[in-house]
Design a protein that fits this description.
Strand content: over 45%
Number of strands: 11
Largest sheet: 7 strands, mixed
Length: 117
Amino acid sequence: QVQLVESGGGLVQPGGSLRLSCAASGSILSIRAMGWYRQAPGKQRELVATITNSGRTNYADSMKGRFTISRDNAKNTVSLQMNSLKPEDTAVYYCYALIGPPRGDYWGQGTQVTVSS
């Protein structure tokens, strides 16, 4: 079992920045990758970015160049630096952890990000 707790969401104006953080606890040695997904009202949950234990990253195309994912393996945290935010970035952002073997998917409770003037 892995527990994930997010922090850092809030209200920001268009063009602004926010930094999300997620702390993992529990069976952290089984974590293979961590990341962020988001879900806007009326839409499906979508990938934002992921990062493996070795530091390999993967971003959704719409986030490339604006968002940066990073990880501190010593502190068992993953962060998401979001710059040049747009109103369409408004969503609940969920921290994610992939564990294995056997494979398991774990989610945080979500943190609201609202981009509005």
